[in-house]
Amino acid sequence: MAGIIVVTGGSRGIGAACATSAAREGYDVAINYERAKDRAEEVVAAVRKLGRRAIAVQGDMSKEADVLRLFAETDAALGRVTALVNNAGIVASVGRLETLTAADIQRSFDVNSVGALLVAREAVKRMAKRFGGAGGAIVGIASAATTLGSPNEFVHYAASKAAMDALTYGLSKEMALEGVRVNAVSPGYIETEIQYAGRAAKIVPAIPVQRAGTAEEVAEAVMFLLSDKASYITGQVLRVSGGR
Ligand code: NDP
């Protein structure tokens, strides 16, 4: 039994794949985006073509007012959310730590850590039994960078994504008796626009399966964790990384 899903950062990449996969599973979908309105509208059209309701809501997930508006607009247009893909994330800059500005570091944490917490907070307010919710499931998009550390590339990104792992462990326990399961998927190298030019040649040889992953392969794992097939799984971070 599907329901109503919010996908942050759903205009492209992993979020867009999750939005269309969710529609195939029978969810009505609220897609958030920051800048790519046209791309978000394309995802909305794809969801509608699959026979499900869809809206696109602009908003910077690092800003509380935008997060509140995303959920309020979803309530009004689709109804009470039952599933969340907490996906919006950025690589603010690439370089060794000593080359980074305070602004690069701050922005990474604003979007990847603070934003993820704000989005999860608004979801549980609608899903948890204590707030009259019907329960639900949350899947965060973490990163293999959290354990690899991403030396010489983006240690600040890896550090900011570690918040998703901790959020998953902690919130799953807070929500265990509230009907809400909280898990995460931790992708390795996935071919999307978040990657800088030339990174594949550097990283792919270090991946045991010797290839990049696709957004659809991440979405498959997300759909499993959202589904009733994962009914006894909560507080887990599932690596989707080709063995890396
Ligand atoms: P993309 O760059 O392809 O897509 C990022 C999405 O997030 C876009 O929809 C973008 O919106 C949105 N977004 C960015 N910043 C904000 C913001 N402040 N508020 C709202 N939306 C925002 O990246 P991926 O699909 O690769 O990444 C998705 C998630 O997966 C991220 O959390 C990333 O950290 C994580 N991840 C990705 C990996 C990879 O190899 N690709 C590996 C590990 C983790 P818009 O289009 O409007 O700009």
Keyword list:
binds NADPH dihydro-nicotinamide-adenine-dinucleotide phosphate, Rossmann fold, 244 residues, single chain, alpha/beta
Tell me about this structure.
- The N and C termini lie far apart (34 Å).
- The longest helix is centred in the middle third of the chain and has 26 residues, at 102-127.
- Strands 3-2-1-4-5-6-7 form a 7-stranded parallel sheet, with helices on both faces.
- It has helices spanning 13-25, 37-49, 64-77, 102-127, 145-148, 155-174, 199-203, 215-226; strands at residues 4-7, 28-33, 54-58, 83-86, 136-141, 180-187, 237-240.
- It has one domain: NAD(P)-binding Rossmann-like Domain (Rossmann fold), CATH 3.40.50.720.
- The radius of gyration is 17 Å and the shape is globular.
- 44% of the residues lie in helices and 15% in strands.
- The mean pLDDT is 98.
- By secondary structure, it is α/β, with parallel strands linked by helices.
- Strand 1, helix 1 (13-25) and strand 2 form a beta-alpha-beta unit.
- The chain is built from 8 helices and 7 strands.
- Bound molecules: NADPH dihydro-nicotinamide-adenine-dinucleotide phosphate.
Runs with pLDDT <50, length 5+? none
* Gap from first CA to last CA: 34 Å
The biggest beta sheet, please? Answer: 7 strands, parallel
User: What gyration radius follows from the Cα positions, in whole Å?
Assistant: 17 Å
The class by helix and strand makeup works out as: alpha/beta
Topology-level CATH name = Rossmann fold
Second-tier CATH architecture: 3-Layer(aba) Sandwich
Query: Mean pLDDT, nearest integer?
Result: 98
**CATH evolutionary superfamily:** NAD(P)-binding Rossmann-like Domain
Strand order of the largest sheet: 3-2-1-4-5-6-7
Order of helices and strands: EHEHEHEHEHHEHHE
Which small-molecule ligands are present, each listed once?
NADPH dihydro-nicotinamide-adenine-dinucleotide phosphate
User: How many DSSP H or I helices?
Assistant: 8
Number of domains: 1
Estimate the global geometry from the Cα principal axes: globular
Count of extended strands: 7
Strand content: 15-25%
